[in-house]
Amino acid sequence: MKRTRTRREFLSTAVAMAAAAGLPASALAQATKDLRGTEEDMRIAIAHFTGPGQMNKGRVRLEVPPLVDNGNTVAISVAVDSPMTETDHVRAIRIFSERNPEPIIMAFKLGPRAGRASVATRVRLADTQTLVAVAEMSDGTYWYGSAPTVVTIASCLEEL
Hints:
Layout: H1 7-21, H2 25-34, H3 39-50, E1 55-57, E2 60-63, E3 67-70, E4 74-80, E5 90-97, E6 104-109, E7 118-123, E8 129-137, E9 142-153
């Protein structure tokens, strides 16, 4: 079975080829900038998750530090107001990024046995951006919350 290359392997090969071709550093910097995601990429990913349904603002609290010194390890947490019963619970939580190379940075599946609808983790952030957390509820509705953060040292593409 053929193994697919990771983004990191692809980027290292691209940088090596560009350096061998003698491209100036400004061209490499522009190529790196072009690999970052956009707000439109994030909107498409959210629409793919929610489908044609309407998203409601509220019930989701996304906490991320307002200022991050290093984007390599950023603590984030998401809590959703839900009783977490058989009839009313959170099915899934996804966290979306507008500037990372991949718009979906975390995906969690929950159920009523989880007890409470809260998750916490650490992520890598490519740049200053607004993160969006979307929760899918058992009744088929979608709720979201967002939080901006300023990243002083970017991650994801810094080895270039």
